[in-house]
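_Per-residue structure_
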Amino acid sequence: MAKRNYVGATQIEKDFLKTFNAIAYRHNPWTVWTDFVNMSATALANAVDREETRWNRREQAYLASAKRYDKDELQSIIQLYALTVQALEENPAQDFLGNLYMNLDFGSSWTGQFFTPWHVAEMMARINVTEHFKDEIDAKGFVSVNDPACGAGCMLIAFAHVCKGLEKVNYQERVLFVAQDIDKVVAQMCYIQLALLGCAGYVIVGDTLTSPPVGPLLLPRETENTELWPLPMFFSTTWAIRRAAAAFAGLLG
């Protein structure tokens, strides 16, 4: 059971929890959370990723989630998504969904997860952005960053923050974000937050140890043990050209 006494540290968190608890009064809190996450991630993904198998799988899962709620409750779930958008617009340097997830006790009680605190993630991002960072971007056109146990994406969000602030790097065009987690719910949380921040790349649902990313960096492939969730920015013109070039280079051997 989620902590019902957590009221939120910011006004947006307070508004989010008020809306969330109103739905959770009639439904299991964990079910409400997973359905909100699934529906939000699917709405973002299916707007841009039209690969038939993935699109249909996501759409079926979306409909399965939606049918549990009445019209007013569905509007409240839309409001949860809108508040998430607002939170990341006002403060992109945060793990908004991950913080709520942990404070609602979904991590420790349900799955034994403990997400990296923001200040630790930011410190690690600064360590990884070396003095040769911009030189590498200039030489290669872009760099990639991978979190093989991404949780809700805190480490990657912090990396984007450091790029934008300290290094003044346009991470939307210059950084390829690759994330993977065995837990689909938190992987979808990561997907939502990276998508809303305009990060390019993809999130993989699957066990990194037994099912690591397959295929070239810019042309990942889904396997029977994984789900591939390409981020919306990965379909931008800049990244589409890079993917086309990678595919052409593959044909040439």
In short: The CA atoms of residues 13 and 100 lie 8 Å apart.
